[in-house]
Amino acid sequence: MKLELDTVGIIHTPYKEKFAIPRQPGLVSAAKAKLILSPPYDEADALRGIEQFSHVWLIFTFHKTMDKGWNPTVRPPRLGGNERLGVFATRSTFRPNPLGLSVAKLDSITIKNNQCILNLSGIDLVDGTPILDIKPYVPYADSLPDAQAGYATDAPIADMPVEFTDEALTQLSAQRKKHPELQIFIAQVLAQDPRPAYKKNKTARQEYGVKLYDFNVRWAVENNITTVFSIMKTVAKAVTESESSND
Domain TsaA-like spans what residues (predicted)? Predict the structure, then answer.
């Protein structure tokens, strides 16, 4: 049986690439996002009553990896990437149908100029993710305190110490008016220690970079301490005639 699904909206998040996205929602509370509904679903009536709920479920597509197909077994990061489990026993992106499920805190709703926007936080989705459906989170049914979680019994430990150099603090200060929580957000993301599992036991200095919001964030890890040394605005790429020919 084949199904055709419509995208009800596109979510805009600070995560411009897969690297450094938290592995589950809610781990980085300072991650803010805007879900902009698409026509014909961008009607205020479609959101009537949702403001009564603190959280919402988002059903989305793994659009960045859907072209890679699926695998019957995968290596969950929580097991260090060394053990294979069945795809249906994991939340891997490489699924028979590239569908994901995520919960987000509903901070507010904006309806302006015929545009409906859900303002969310605690998000774990890459920027531009297509959203297929939105459902209210119902605590009595969706939160099961006696449930068992197999190999993922507890939240990942996010205790990597994160420091900022004087130069990075100066760069943050220049952005404080537009991004008042930028330092908190970066610290929460990097406290998750997004390095590949095979590099986490190394003590020699390692340098990394990631795009968050419209910044290139550079940091180093040495002796299990993360030091952010650069937070630079990204340079917008000019669109050439050949790049825009498919519009």
Answer: 5-146
126 plus 166 within the same structural domain: no
Q: pLDDT band for position 75 (50/70/90)?
A: confident
Residue 53: is its pLDDT beyond 70?
yes
Whole-model pTM: value is 0.88
User: Cα separation of 176 and 168, whole Å?
Assistant: 12
Radius of gyration of the CA atoms of the chain, in A: 19
List the CATH number of the domain containing 98. Answer: 2.40.30.70
Instruction: Find the CATH number of the domain harbouring 215.
Output: 3.30.2310
Report in angstroms the alpha-carbon separations of 196 from 39, 82, 201, 208, 218.
40, 12, 10, 11, 16
d(CA 65, CA 120): 24
